[in-house]
Fold this protein.
Amino acid sequence: MHRAISKRSRHELKRLIENGVCEISQLTGSGLWFVVDELEVAGSPPSKIMVWATLWFGVEGSPYCCSEPGCHLGSVLFSNKLDDWIGRQMGLKQPVRVDFGDRIAARQFNGTRFKPPYSSLEG
């Protein structure tokens, strides 16, 4: 069952997830910008948070090896690190699962470059 949360709580949770991804994946200074576009919360207190997000590739970090979010966010997507981090930040006693599924889009700013065979992102 998905829980309705206030606009302020939704905004705070989006920022918390963005900050966690940035810290765990060490995005600061990389030219990558992770933005939570939308989320759904299940349970009260939360047991699962489904996230829709965008990973922006900036000029500052180019050329990038590729445009795959999983390559650049692997430590977040393929481990429990973010789940644990969010749980601690929220003061939860029970586990929480942050679920990205295949819902991270990749976008680039003008002038961003990728190493061959990648030249730019579509869309």
